[in-house]
Design goal:
alpha/beta; 5 helices
Length: 124
């Protein structure tokens, strides 16, 4: 099983508790036998050029298209536009089910391909 791990990398990378939570979740998935692709740990866009960021986007889209499941962590108080867009694309266009831990937007709540797991805000 290939799991695409979506996370709001543009908003909360400095949050150590979230980083630890995501690492633990990734390790759990790996122990369960899944292959996990995390764009947040695959690329350091601050250190690579514009051309490479285009390559990174293509690789991320390819990884998403090959995934069997998308897992996302959306903590309360962390704004993200990209992750809900990835989830909507994966579920509605590609037909990939999603598990979302944390706060789900109203569109995610109405999506039958999304399983919302309420999560307390572990950052507090």
């Amino acid at each position: 099983m290939i799991v695409y791990f979506a996370e709001p990398i543009d908003q909360d990378q400095a949050n150590f508790v979230e980083t630890e939570f995501r690492a633990a979740l990734q390790n759990h998935l790996l122990r369960a036998g899944a292959s996990v692709y995390r764009p947040a740990t695959a690329w350091n866009l601050a250190e690579i050029g514009r051309h490479t960021s285009t390559v990174a986007e293509k690789v991320n889209r390819t990884a998403l298209a090959e995934a069997d499941l998308i897992v996302a962590r959306l903590p309360e108080g962390t704004a993200s536009v990209g992750v809900p867009m990835e989830i909507e694309y994966a579920t509605r266009v590609l037909g990939i089910p999603a598990i979302v831990v944390g706060v789900g937007e109203i569109t995610l709540q109405a999506n039958s391909m999304v399983w919302l797991v309420p999560g307390r805000n572990i950052a507090n």
